[in-house]
What does this fold into?
Amino acid sequence: MNVKLGKYNQLTVVKEVDFGVYLDGDDDGEILLPTRYVPEGCKPDDVLNVFIYLDNEERLIATTLQPLVQVGEFACLEVAWVNEFGAFLDWGLMKDLFVPFREQKMKMQKGRKYIVHAHVDEDSYRIVASAKVERYLSKDFPDYQPGQVVDVLVWQKTDLGFKVIVENKFSGLLYQNEIFQPLETGMQLKAYVKQVREDGKIDLALQQSGAKKVDDFSEVLLQHIKENDGFTPLNDKSDADDIYDTFGVSKKTFKKAVGDLYKKRLIVLEGRGIRLA
It folds into this structure.
């Protein structure tokens, strides 16, 4: 098959019809892009970036809509409806994404969201999803360096913190005692690699560690004070939640940055806040 099912493809318009345009799918034949998705001014020989999936009659069909997940990716999707065969997830397209009962960890319920992996079923040649996430994580050893920034998808809460999926491939962990913001399943965030353990699991943090984090935040804090008429009511006696709500950092990082700026004589500490020197 030349067309990548469940992914974006660059396909050429071969002809126009009353109900849309047909695209050149090479060995897979012509693929319909319905009228509602045809860009204005589209004509034969134009090359379009389209997502290919199967319609209700299991025929290849194209869309310019952006799905919430592609084949080979993980995502947090809501159950649109359930029948005797399984659950159907809303992934942003006309036809919902099917999760057979055998691919559910527990019986899925309408209206709830679940982390799933999208793939092409080898037997039916349909795009399906599975909630048995562990099965689809990469077995390769992660090649990340401490301090490297990665994209993560919050997966599930554990006694230690939150499991996350790193770069759509690997399992990682954010430790509870290092989390200073509310987290919930399905959130997509940037994180910093702390270390890759011998078992291939990745320890992560939502904030940079060490001197670089303090240096970076010192600049942010100084700029904040300058932009607020040279004063902020926050100081080392302030509540940690107030500090996080304002700057998105822990109180420990805030206090280190205050000390750094004070040593450089850039700020003056007052009883009711911090003032620009």
Observations:
- The mean pLDDT is 92.
- Residues 211-227 form the longest helix (17 residues).
- The radius of gyration is 25 Å.
